[in-house]
Specification:
Structural class: mainly alpha
Largest sheet: 2 strands, antiparallel
Distance between the termini: 70 Å
Number of helices: 29
Number of strands: 6
Shape: flat
Helix content: 55-70%
Strand content: under 5%
Radius of gyration: 30 Å
Length: 518
């Protein structure tokens, strides 16, 4: 079920950043698991309970209860009770030591974090949580100013955790003032993002409908507020979460916000989730939701997903589901997907089926997958299968492709040579000249050589060295001119010397037009 283990002090979490669906990864250690490719956050109270146990084993000097069980949490004898922990009846003491830790954070967050280095991961986390839990609202607000001054969560995983905990504590104490501050600061720094997500994590507990209405007019921050609302209620009441998402109206509905709870709903109650989805009106929002759950459905039951796809009246939705199934099955049974490619029922998906199957097959038996690809009669099919093989080739597999490139079609051969030359820039290939010597077509060799010289990136020295090594039959003068110009930016004398050293009169003339004359 979990595809990302709970890691010590460097947990990787992924967030959707709208409107694109690409994941932007942030390294921090709030104790996240990724479930079905969507993040699930463990509440701080649960993490704190686990951390407390670990810290006790290591000598939890800061968790000794000294105050009355019903303390307020604002003094050295008080008791800090996070909402979730209070509901479970557990109490976490605020001691002299935790107040001292809170003071250390306020004095210098950086020094506080440095003092945790070398500690066991859970102990360090416990100290962060205990220190933050001991803070009053005024201290929390002061801590956010300190954290902004040191760049907030952009440094280390521990720094991100401290920053996140501070905002979460603020939300527990006074979500309204936090929301006001977050809206005021907007997207200029992480106060906007962290403030809104933390505030709405609390607000949704009291009134989900009201929170949704308040989220409408937050501009770019609205997405993060709505994500917290839907994740807060989606696991327990997906029907309500879907109703809220639909309330935005046809032009504002966002299927990306619904992916997490729709997939968990599908896992618990496939019939209910599918029925609710099919009851939605046709349109972009529904199509997006179909795409959100298609991969999860295929992972659970590929045959069931195919049957569902066959029953969908919208051809675009059906196509999306089938493609998700092909992709899922290819990783498990590429031969079955190859058989599906020959089935007339999936004729319109043939190229995608072949590409997915051979891509997976190539990771298991590269040579067999290449032989199968070369046996294809259609150039289009051959290209569809060859593309993933070439893209995913290891250095040793790339060498095999180079050895047989001259026996392939010109288009495939050029792809191999181009990829090998690109690998040179990443250190996989040591000598571009030896790659180009394998090219039998003079026209292709010249074109590839020009590309190789042009792709010297940010290092002009590398470009000059390539220019010297490759020596094509006909080097383009504009590249000699460009190299001389870039070399002159840092060393005009060297640029002039290099230009004058070129044996070709035409190239020398071109280079000298950009080399400063002294």
């Amino acid at each position: 079920m979990y595809d990302l283990p709970f890691e010590e002090y460097n947990t990787e979490c992924a967030f959707f950043f709208h409107p694109v669906s690409d994941f932007v990864k942030l390294n921090f250690n709030l104790g996240y698991f990724r479930v079905s490719q969507h993040p699930m956050k463990i509440s701080h109270s649960l993490l704190l309970a686990a951390s407390t146990a670990a810290a006790g084993a290591a000598g939890a000097w800061f968790l000794k209860p000294t105050g009355p069980a019903g303390g307020t949490g604002h003094g050295p004898a008080g008791v800090f009770m996070p909402p979730a922990a209070a509901a479970q009846g557990s109490q976490l003491a605020v001691t002299v030591e935790t107040k001292a830790a809170a003071a250390a954070v306020l004095a210098s967050p950086m020094d506080f974090l440095k003092s945790q280095k070398g500690q066991p991961s859970l102990v360090a986390r416990s100290r962060i949580l205990a220190a933050v839990g001991a803070m009053s609202l005024e201290e929390i607000r002061a801590a956010t100013v300190k954290l902004r001054a040191m760049g907030e969560g952009g440094g280390t995983p521990a720094q991100w955790e401290l920053t996140s905990c501070v905002y979460e504590r603020w939300a527990e104490l006074d979500p309204e003032s936090l929301l006001t501050e977050a809206v005021h600061r907007g997207m200029q720094d992480q106060t906007g993002y962290l403030g809104v997500t933390s505030a709405f994590r609390e607000l949704v507990k009291k009134d989900a409908d009201g929170a949704w209405k308040r989220a409408q007019d937050l501009g770019p921050l609205s997405y993060y507020a709505k994500r917290e609302i839907l994740s807060g209620i989606g696991s327990g009441n997906p029907q309500q979460a879907l109703k809220l998402a639909m309330a935005d109206g046809p032009t504002r509905r966002d299927s990306y916000l619904c992916g997490g709870f729709m997939q968990s709903w599908l896992a618990r109650d496939r019939g209910g989730a599918v029925a609710a989805l099919e009851a939605l009106p046709q349109g972009e929002f529904r199509a997006g939701l179909v795409g959100q759950i298609a991969g999860a459905f295929a992972a659970q039951d590929a045959d069931g997903a195919l049957a569902w796809a066959a029953g969908l009246k919208n051809s675009a939705e059906s196509t999306g589901v089938i493609r998700s199934v092909l992709s899922q099955l290819a990783g498990e049974d590429p031969q079955r997907v190859l058989a599906m490619a020959d089935d007339p029922k999936y004729a319109q998906h043939r190229l995608e089926a072949l590409s997915s199957a051979v891509s997976s097959w190539g990771r298991r038996d590269f040579d067999a997958a290449v032989s199968f690809t070369l046996s294809a009669k259609s150039p289009a099919e051959q290209a569809a299968m060859f593309r993933p093989l070439n893209e995913n080739a290891s250095p040793s597999q790339r060498a095999k492709l180079l050895a047989m490139a001259d026996k392939m079609s010109p288009a495939m051969a050029k792809t191999i040579y181009s990829s090998a030359l690109n690998d040179y820039y990443f250190g996989s290939q040591s000598d571009p000249k030896s790659i180009l010597e394998k090219v039998t077509s003079p026209a292709m060799r010249e074109e590839l050589t020009k590309n190789a010289i042009g792709n010297y990136g940010t290092s002009v020295e590398e470009g000059v060295e390539l220019f010297r090594k490759l020596q094509p039959v006909s080097q383009p003068g504009e590249q000699a001119s460009e190299l001389a110009k870039r070399l002159a930016w840092s060393d005009p004398a060297a640029a002039l010397k290099w230009a004058e050293s070129l044996s070709s009169a035409d190239l020398r003339k071109s280079a000298l037009t950009s080399a400063p004359q002294t």
